[in-house]
Amino acid sequence: MKQLHFTFRCCYLLTVSLFVSNFSFSQPDGAALFKSNCVACHSIGKGVVIGPDLKDAHKRRPEDWLIKWIKNSQAVVKSGDAYAVALFNKFNKIPMTSFNLKDDEIKAMLAYVKAESEKAPPPAPAASAQGQAEQKGGNTFLYLLIAAVVLFLITTMMKKIQHAMEKALRHKQGLPEPVKMKRWESFVHWARNNKKLLAVAFIVLSVFGSVKGWYALAAIGVAQGYQPDQPIAFSHKIHAGDNAINCKYCHFGAEKGKTAGIPPDNVCMNCHKYIKTGTLTGADEIAKIYKALDYNPETQTYGKNQKPIQWVRIHNLPELTYFNHSQHVKVAGVECQTCHGEVQNETVAKQFAPLTMQWCIDCHRTTPVKMAGNHYYDDYHKELLKKYGSDSLITVERIGGTECSKCHY
Amino acid sequence: MSEKKYWKGIEELRNDAEFVRLKNNEFFEHLPVDEKISRKAEANDVTPRRDFLKFMGFSVAAATLAACETPIVKSIPYIIKPEEITPGIANWYASTFWDGYDYCPVVVKTREGRPIKIEGNDKSLITGGGTSARVQASVLSLYDTARLKTPFANGAPASWENIDAAVSKKLADIAAKNGKIRILSSTIISPSTKKIIEEFTKKYPGTQHVTYDSISCSGIIKANKESFETAAIPSYRFDKADVIVSFGADFLANWISPIEFAGQYAAGRKLDNGKKKMSKHIQFEANLSLTGSNADKRYMMKPSQAGVAIANLYNAVARMTGAVTLNVPDAGELKNAIEDTAKQLVAAKGKSLVVAKSNMASVQNIVNGINVLLESYGSTINLAEPCMTRQGNDDAIKNLWKELIDGEVSALLIYNCNPCYTLPDADKFTTALKKVELTVSFSDRSDETAGNCHFICPDNHYLESWGDAEAKKGYYSFSQPTIAPLFSTRQFAESMLLWSGAGNNYHEYLKSFGENVNGWESKLKEGVHEMLSQESTAIKFMSEVLSASASIVSTMKSSGGLELILYEKTGIGNGNQANNPWLQELPDPVSKVTWDNYLCVSPKDAREKGWNNNNVVTLKANGVAMDVPVYVQPGQTPGTVALALGYGRKNCGKVADGVGVNAFAFSRITSEGIMYWSNCDVAKSTKDDYMLAATQLHHTMMGRKIVKETMLENFIRKSDSGNEELLIPIHDGEEKKKLSPDKVNLWDSFETPNHRWGMSIDLNSCIGCGACVVACTAENNVPVVGKDEIARSREMHWIRIDRYYTSDAAEGDLSAMEQPSDNPQVVFQPVMCQHCNHAPCETVCPVVATTHSSEGLNQMAYNRCIGTRYCANNCPYKVRRFNWFEYTTNSKFTDVNPSQSELGRMVLNPDVVVRARGVMEKCSMCIQRIQETKLNAKKESRKIADGEIKTACLQACPTHAITFGDYNIAGSEINKMWKPEERSYHLLEELDVQPNVFYQTKVRNTEAGEKHES
Lengths: 409, 1014
Description:
The structure holds 2 protein chains of 2 kinds.
Chain A: H1 2-22, H2 30-37, H3 57-60, H4 63-71, H5 73-78, H6 82-90, H7 103-118, H8 127-173, H9 183-193, H10 195-218, H11 236-242, H12 247-250, H13 265-272, H14 283-293, E1 295-296, E2 301-302, E3 311-312, H15 325-331, H16 336-340, H17 357-366, H18 378-388
Antiparallel strand pairs in A: 1-2
Helix pairs in contact in A: 2-7, 13-14
Chain B: H1 10-14, H2 17-22, H3 33-37, H4 39-42, H5 49-68, E1 74-75, E2 91-98, E3 103-111, E4 114-120, H6 133-142, E5 152-153, E6 156-157, H7 160-176, E7 180-185, H8 191-203, E8 207-211, H9 218-228, E9 233-236, E10 243-247, H10 258-267, E11 280-285, H11 290-294, E12 297-300, H12 306-321, H13 335-347, E13 352-356, H14 361-373, E14 381-387, H15 394-405, E15 409-415, H16 419-422, H17 426-433, E16 438-441, E17 455-456, E18 467-472, E19 475-479, H18 492-500, H19 506-511, H20 520-526, E20 528-530, H21 545-554, E21 562-567, H22 581-585, E22 593-594, E23 599-601, H23 603-609, E24 616-621, E25 624-632, E26 640-644, E27 668-670, E28 673-675, E29 677-684, E30 693-694, E31 709-711, H24 712-717, E32 728-732, E33 735-739, E34 757-762, H25 771-779, H26 786-791, E35 800-805, H27 814-817, E36 826-831, H28 840-844, E37 850-852, E38 858-860, H29 870-874, E39 881-882, E40 920-921, H30 927-939, H31 952-956, E41 962-966, H32 973-977, E42 984-985, E43 997-1000, E44 1002-1004
Helix pairs in contact in B: 6-25, 8-18, 9-14, 12-13, 12-14, 14-21
């Protein structure tokens, strides 16, 4: 019976989750809302960040209380609610930001918190496995090298033995020593006898050389994999990966304008006013933010001697190219990772994409345009559907996305 | 990567002094570019083979070296980001341009806190969103390297504390002994600043404020005082006038409130939407001004004739309306012209307007008399709404001068004017200035006047300032800083506030000043706060002034010799912004000459005296003699010569210094006021010819219909008059027939599925002022190339305004047709890339660097271009520009190109690339604005509204001559404008290159056979 009950529950959950995923269009996305609004201060099951850990928060307080609290926590505190006052005092009287969200949005968020709370803690990241793989790659090369050296030694030795035996044989049969040729003469002698082989080798080498040369020239100015040292040992892995802070929380320009932007120091301080010690580097690296702002963590005051942090720019798109983040992030809905790689797993940020024109164009040739629902495209979309038949065939290129003056002006 | 360091050679490793000196140069070796292109080398300019190989070898080596190292780029975020700034997104602030000369409510585009572009504020009822070349260029003046970085005391940098202490102490000492304190300023239109001056006067009772305009309208104010007992300049309504008569007043470019008047003038002459009526404009003038070149009827008149001519016009009008005539001499050769003008004026009684430039009150009294007879007051002139932009009082400056010479003045504060440059006999003023115990200048640079003052307290640029303005009674506008002061400068108003002891913060003072308290924030946001216009009240004309004026006017007689007239150019104006390279490079709309002033001579005089362009002559007038180059200017009245004001600056900055001669030296002060004309002598000098750099060397259309025009009566009769369908003869087998060019086209059409951008230019509205040229320069990072390059026809402007004169020659006589008439009719035509659908440039590019977009634009990929220049050769409109140099680094352009200094680069538009050497460039139809608007629409999930995209030229235009939009939207403005059956036509339509830009025929309000008489 218990077994049956469990199976039934699983089926129920599955159905519900299917429904939820099917209707996620019309309903607010709790996970996304949570990630963009809450993760800067809260975690679910990973301990206190700035505010309390929200694991099982739905069990601690009723939903309508939570809605009131999220909308305006200070109003609840001022109303004299005992739980609220205690909570406020417990967390150093740091007021929680008021969120201008709709009720159903908050409910979706709470549902997400509930779902996350019930999940088992995620397994530890498979960092070690990856490390091994790298190790393995390195060893193969070493073995090959050793094998090559050994082979070389063996051939040299064999050659010497052969030479000595020939000499001994000649000596035994009383044959004269052959005329000693200079190295060059012997090569010419050999070449005369092996004209075809030489011609083939020459052709192969020149083709190989041109192809290699072509790619070498094409790689000039391409800084793929560029991973410079930064003034602060900032880890995207800890921020975006482990703590799941939304990329756009810090790179807030991505949806608005041309540049995603390096976050100004005041954005760092939203959290690092309270988080003074890092997981990997201790207090030293975070202190660099304080130094830039001339901030005294003891007295919580800012001085006048503020100097900006000079980050090393990684993605250096040439000036002749106009690129706009909001076009790709907001309008096309491209994920950050598409062009920047799995940044959430990187301890030191690096250039993932080659940023060459070919790379841009290749994507524009294959990516369909998100036209449905955007009223800018209304009539144009209908026309294109008539022409190409399917949304997936209306690529960026087909609406003029590879024309020069889309990016060059 | 960041750890690695590559050395370019052992010299860099050792850090040799020579290496350090050379490392910022484009080339390590000195390349003899300057010598190569100097005039001397021109004669035998051959590059030897060895030199060629040397250069080529060097270029290869340099390119290899440059490719070796990828520089490390820093990304420096804000420490604490201001809430309103998002990097990459422009912020707009409303403000007001006023430099004592031009007024314009503006909105300022800032990027990451830097002002980069000025647009007109279309909420203003005065300017209606229009701008002028000078307003457009004013943003560059903010980044002028010649601006003072600190205040100066006795020629040495000082701190504000020291200056305040020293000045206050001096002022107190002077006040204690009842010394005279004088404030000399240009017109101040800020009510709060005037109030602060009052406060200052209260504290130091010996103070008097003298208002002095370098180009004075004092005569009009004085005349209105005499005629109507109202000492003010009235508002004029050129849009309400059916007949406009101007005696020398260049109201479209310089006179009183040109942006406002240009807008009104064009409104009264637009023929859109089936309108078949336009005003008639008659101009009497000596030199061919911008206004005169737009006139329907232009008469040539010597400046000495103006008074008598105006008095005769009065008499003619009086006779027709039954009023008493004046006793004045006969108008001589102008008799018929005046009779004819009077008839037209009287026929349009109540809807006519007469204006005159003359600074003589007696002449202006008679002008007032004419306007009273014509019942213009209450319709085209409103005295109840006085215009405040010219308040200068010539009597006051004369008085001050006398006091200075007598040594009576103890302290002189000079604000926003430059008397040591603009006054006649400026040297005497400078000497007198030295007698004054305390002289303070508020100039932003150590110019002619400031250099002679004890203290220089540099004023902020207007983009760094707070302020208010009342350009017309009841029409307020406001200024707010768009950037923190770049240097240690302080606003004039704040300095005066401090010294008067009435406060210490001008911003606070302004907020609480008068009505400002109410809705301050929204007033700042809107930029303008304009009350309902004041109804014209009944006027009382003191007709007795007329006879006295007539007797003064009667004494004005021509000496019979040459007369010199001083005029203002559309770009440089009174010389305030002479150090602005955009304005220096803007071709004069009429002569098309850049970077100079010159003596305009009539073709008749030039023929008789044997003068040619570029000859140097010695000009003598009022005891001053100067050598000036000659420019033969059609339309210049025979017996007169003209010289532009605003040039010949000293210590103004490296751009302005040494450009042209100072024409203010030829002005004179008479009992009537400052006069900008006089008798003169001109004799050929023995000096070598002087090169003038003009952008247009061919002046007539040679019988071709490049600018199509027609007469109003023909247009009324037949709406395609002047724009008849063009048919070209072709052979079809044996048969000969005529077809329209698009029937014989070889090319396939391009598809434009989503948008198809188009532009219409109304030649009837374009007045040729050049605001679009400067706006385009600012928007598209167009480089400044300097005079030398322009002389080689290598100017870089993406939009040019072609000016054509009519010729008297018979059709077919080609060499005679090249000669313009002595008093030609003039047409202006802005020409930029026409974005042809069958573009000749696209088919000849060997590397496909110029292609056609699916939105109908001809696009240019700079980095694909290898510089063959085939496209420019194949372009029938000659709108493509080639980058001959790296203008931003080459030392040849250090003095002229603002992008060579760190400060000057701040004006660059970050959305448009700065083109490298060796590539072709041209108008992109402001593609960055199109793309931005499209993106905004996509982000907001909506259609682009018609008229939402404004190109820089369109937005700057004071007459709204340009329309831009999407042909693919049914009923869009641009679709409505395209009426080939009326006035629309393509330039050089016989080629059938199918441009996306089209023009509207110019219509002149003239009668059959009528032309300007020589």
